[in-house]
Amino acid sequence: MNIKTFVKKAGPYVYMVPAMAVFAVFLFFPFFKTIYLSLYKTNKMGQAKLYVGLLNYADLLNSPSFFNSLLVTAIFVVIVVSVSMLLGLIAAVLCSKTFPGIRIFSTAYALPMAIASSSAAMIFKIMLHPSIGIVNKILGFHINWISDPKYALACVALLTAWLNSGINFLYFSAGLSNIDETIYERASVDGANSIQRFFFLTLPGLSPIMFYTLVVNIIQAFQSFGQVKVLTQGGPGESTNLIVYSIYRDAFFNYRFGSAAAQSVLLFLIIMILTLCMFRLEKKGVSY
Amino acid sequence: MASLSFVNVCKTYKNGLTVVKDFNLDIKDREFLILVGPSGCGKSTTLRMIAGLEDITSGELWIDGQLMNMTSPQSRDLSMVFQSYALYPHLTVYQNMAFGLKVHKVPKDEIEKRVGRAAEILHISHLLDRKPSALSGGQKQRVAIGSVIVRQPKAYLMDEPLSNLDAKLRSQMRVELAKIHRELGATIIYVTHDQVEAMTLGTRIVVMNSGVIQQAASPNDIYENPVNKFVAGFIGSPSMNFFPVWVARREEKICLEFGKNKLIANEICSKRLVEDGYVGRRVYLGIRPEDFHEEGPEEQKILFDVEMKEVLGAEILFHGRINREEICVRLSPNVKAEPGERLPVYVDMDRIKLFDMDTEQNIIYV
Amino acid sequence: MDSVITTAAKEINRDELEKLKRSATQKALFRRRAGKFALVIVNLAMSIFVLLPLLYAVSIAFMPSSELFTTEMNLIPGNPTLENFRQAMVKIPLNRFIVNSFFVAGCITFGQILSCSLAAFSFSFLDFKGKNLLFMVVMATMMIPGEATIISNYLTVSGLHWLDSYKVLIIPYLTSAMGIFLFRQFYKSFPISLYESARIDGCSNLRFIYSILIPLTKSAIGAMAVYTFINAWNMYMWPLLVTGSDRMRTVQIGIGMLDSVDSQSISMMIAGVVMIIIPSISVFIAGQRQLIRGMFSGAVKG
């Protein structure tokens, strides 16, 4: 094969080089390296020193701390996903029919998606401040929200829900606009009032986008980090020790890279299984 | 079933565009009334005003003696078939048809009965469990009609329901619709741009143009006695031929002259032309393609240059020019003439129409 | 041929008829306007609820710290001041952080647009062995969550002595599977003849990309630029791990240096937070229509 044909054949691949190089070095390689690391105990520099096979996994599955993380993460995800989807849905419905000023309101509802989790967390820290925070002032309590193991998780979850409501608003707005207008007209002539039209037409019409939004929300909720680091650092008493934060702590405070890697792998498996289950369920769900 | 009344209804959009002007019409119980006209003439808008989907800018709409201008669509007790069918995509055919009944709180067994019967009439009983995405165009259209006939509203509204179907299906559905009208004894208000549909289906036709009613009469009346040039040209296929002619008095007879052709008007036409002062002026002469004959008296003869011939089996359509005007003539297959030849044809002078050049009104309108 | 209806209508006194019409019209119009009005009010309430954290932050940022610690509800600063902002800029090298973030976010945005559009070009217009397999591999990367790779990535870059530099912040993020997907969807809407005719005219691939494809892709590029910039600006976990010096910190990490709970610092901290939120919000507001159109151009479906 001479130079010319080689260049011609290689051509297409050349355009992929920048992207694939980055993927290879920073996505594929570390992914496998993480799996590799999870089978070892490491030194403080992260070098794999002692092969222990599945010991790290066994330790995790026997540790109450890990199960606590799982539980806390599960509760967290449930709160985040349900609240943020509800907020997004309400906002989208409020903006479905045009009215003066709708542009401004749409921007407002979508805004949270532009805000960093750490920035938002700092604002929420002050909002939840026991003495000067607006939450206590409005509700008339004196609770120290983020220092109380009963409430800390809910606070972090609500903060995350707020952050995610913006993108959900956009998804649901798009879903609403995909619904054919004429079926509303037909339903009107058929005698349905606006409440009936909402439940019989709008909600079913949103179900395809709802599935997609749900999956995206869950995956994103599992990756929440900044809020925890800034607001509660996993506490008080591990009540907000989400899996991602636990991984961070294990790796960078305890220098137990092996164990942290094992947690990463388990987290990855959990997300995979959840996603697969959801796809299975969707096939059985509302079809068009 | 109900009667409707439009009194001086106008519809103007916010940007100033008036799409319906001075609409006055009484629709009687059990009529199959058809609104027909070219695109943009305001017929769909009028239908939507009846349904309540469009506001009435001025004028009154009465349904069964009640003023309905501001009533919401859901309280008007009407039923509508949309051009795009508007089937609920997440419901089965059965549920689609049952929807209106469910909303009106009709008991379940009654719903089953009515949907079953409608499905039978429309031959869609085998489709009841399917979703709209699994239906063909013709099937969707039947479901849309089915959804409407299960109810017993004051009137049925249909907005170009057949326009998305192929020709064969369309003619089949026309027959079905006529049957439904008879069996249900329903008041149907139907919109179409297809004048063939209008003529075959309607008990009364309302021809509209640019938002204004041109003529409201039975199909026969509209065909025989069009009120103006627009209606005459719109109804009838192939459409009427129009020629500008001079009205001249030659030896006590009134002649219509164009180019080398001279036609002698009959008594009725002559009388009207003289009385209304058209002698010495120009008018439009309208002759339908089917009103030409192969033979006849010399004074009814005209010659034209054949440019194209369409052989339709039972008849032939000759297209050509006469005096630089286009002409279409329908004759029996016996006539042998080829493109490039000159063909003499004989005008049935009792069936011609005459229209004022400026107002385009039918001079001999009854 | 007057129908029964019109005769009946004419029998009613013309005045009464007008009155009937007017009252019905007025009632309906009122109901409609009231509905619209209620919608505006509800939206207003809802958006204030949604924006509450931001509005609160802005209010605190302008409030002199002495006003903070009162038991009354003070939402609007009595004596608005810029002092908090000034102090925030002084206490920490916020300028440096902002410059860093702009530089990093800008490079990432530019780099992603470049690498993704090139890769997508290859997928859409060229034919080569393993194209479909490679594309599936790229899509599969979207399934790998950050946690699965972040530890190893850290170990990699620390081994390369890249820590605490611009390259460690930028290079790992120079491409994105979502970006490739977005561009590919966009390119699919172009007829292949666009490319073929350019080739027949003797246009090289690069020339085609540069002079024909890119100008046509402006809206997708716009959408991606907005999205990528905002995400890059908001990055937290990775910069936290790989940068440590004041010189290299980005805004999100740097602002943490103001984090504390005594009254003077709170106002300062919030003022700092407000300052670093402004760029991302501005980019969002300016580009939201582009962003939305780009995100949903593929007709999102389940």
From TrEMBL, chain A:
One Pfam assignment: BPD_transp_1
Organism domain of life: Bacteria
Compartment annotation: Cell membrane
Keyword Cell membrane attributed: yes
Membrane topology recorded in Swiss-Prot or TrEMBL: Multi-pass membrane protein
Entry annotated with the keyword Transmembrane helix: yes
Sorted UniProt keywords: Cell membrane, Membrane, Transmembrane, Transmembrane helix, Transport
PROSITE patterns: ABC_TM1 (PS50928)
Gene Ontology CC terms: plasma membrane
CDD domains documented for this protein: TM_PBP2 (cd06261)
GO biological process, one term: transmembrane transport
Domain ABC transmembrane type-1 span(s) in chain numbering: 66-278
SUPFAM superfamilies: MetI-like
TM spans (from-to): 12-32, 70-95, 107-128, 151-177, 198-222, 260-279
Family the entry assigns: Belongs to the binding-protein-dependent transport system permease family.
Protein name in UniProt: Glycerol-3-phosphate ABC transporter permease
Species per Swiss-Prot/TrEMBL record: Lacrimispora celerecrescens
